[in-house]
Specification:
single chain; 363 residues; alpha/beta; 2 domains; 5-stranded mixed beta sheet; 16 helices
Length: 363
């Protein structure tokens, strides 16, 4: 028996991020990574559709008119098919060339700094590394979704294939370390698809888990979104708030229940659920990982360790900026204690060390 299944790029079109990368690569323009890598100039990635239909048509046409552009697009689809059908040899060839270092943690827990310093340690200028390769918006991974736009699993496989195709281009000429090209990646979303990240990026990948006390982390989040709502009710305004609203609904809350939540209650439930995901999946993201608690001394020590390891000057690391929020919202601290204990117990149960003392500093 033989069954022919035909899928075209009309069913699974290239992502906007991938097309923008390929277009920039073809034109030879210098990538602008300031939106993620320059302190004080960070701009969060927009959720959903980012480009107008006319802009998308223009990009697709320019790439279609280029033989090289079509080869790059074709390579992404080759890798996508390999992931769909389990072509282990095709993925192993990528793993033999590249070694990935994943920086995983909830938003506002310092992962961007460590990712940036990893790039610097490896000889890259972070502000010239595009966000699509460095930051955590790509590849996509999320709780299960099935609707007219597709499914989460297919979207994760497709964007992972595009990510690998971009890695092959951008890092082709990078220096090797221990016979591999080392590729840092901030990968908050790896917690939602740990098996995919490990099986594709390789058992030899390394992981750094960043963790921060939920109270200052929540404060940092609402500050980035415009401030704490006057009535202290949860309102999903910025990207991060929309992501935890999504996770709360995925956990079984109705949209009405989420809208009725106290702001810190909503954040704390998201924070706990995310860190339980990490406990259950940490060893499935990569077999080699370490947890680093938020704090200037600890993060700069980690940055210097990587600089020494990869041959850079260990003292030449950027300052990690910490804002002291320890006297703000003391009423939230007791409310956070139970969640901290539950997460710590879960980490201990699976053999992961939970840094109670360090995060209790509440930086």
């Amino acid at each position: 028996m033989s069954v022919l299944i035909t899928l075209t790029d009309s069913h699974m079109p290239p992502s906007e991020q991938f097309l923008e990368f390929i277009d920039s690569w073809l034109t030879g323009v210098e990538f602008n990574g300031a939106t993620w890598a320059t302190y004080g100039q960070e701009q969060p990635e927009r959720l959903g559709r980012r480009l107008s239909p006319s802009r998308m048509h223009e990009l697709r046409q320019r790439i279609a008119d280029s033989d090289a552009g079509m080869r790059y697009v074709g390579r992404a689809y080759e890798l996508f098919v390999a992931l769909l059908i389990g072509d282990i040899d095709a993925i192993r060839a990528v793993q033999q060339r590249f070694r990935f270092v994943l920086v995983v943690g909830a938003p506002r827990s310092g992962g961007k700094y460590l990712t940036k310093e990893l790039f610097r340690a490896l000889g890259h200028v972070p502000s010239r590394v595009p966000a699509v390769l460095a930051h955590d918006g790509f590849p996509e991974a999320a709780p299960w979704r099935f609707d007219r736009s597709g499914t989460t699993w297919i979207e994760s496989l497709h964007t992972m294939a595009e990510y690998l195709a971009m890695v092959e281009l951008f890092f082709a000429a990078a220096d090797r370390h221990e016979d591999h090209i080392v590729v840092p990646k901030k990968a908050t979303k790896a917690a939602y698809a740990p098996g995919l990240f490990q099986s594709v990026l390789g058992a030899g990948a390394e992981g750094v888990i960043t963790i921060r006390h939920p109270v200052p982390s929540c404060i940092s989040t609402f500050e980035s979104a415009g401030g704490l709502p006057a009535d202290h009710r949860f309102v999903p305004r910025g990207n991060l708030e929309r992501l935890w609203a999504r996770d709360l609904i995925s956990a079984g809350f109705s949209a009405r229940e989420v809208a009725d939540m106290d702001y810190f209650e909503a954040y704390l439930r998201y924070w706990e659920d995310y860190h339980v995901r990490l406990a259950m999946s940490g060893s499935n993201i990569t077999h080699h990982y370490r947890a680093v608690a938020y704090g200037a001394e600890r993060f700069m020590r980690e940055a210097r360790r990587n600089a020494d390891r990869f041959g850079s000057l260990g003292t030449d690391v950027e300052e990690f900026h910490v804002h002291d929020r320890r006297d703000r919202h003391p009423e939230w601290i007791t409310r956070a204690d139970a969640a901290l204990r539950r997460v710590g117990d879960q980490w201990t149960r699976v053999g992961m060390a939970f840094p109670f003392d360090e995060i209790a500093e509440r930086w």
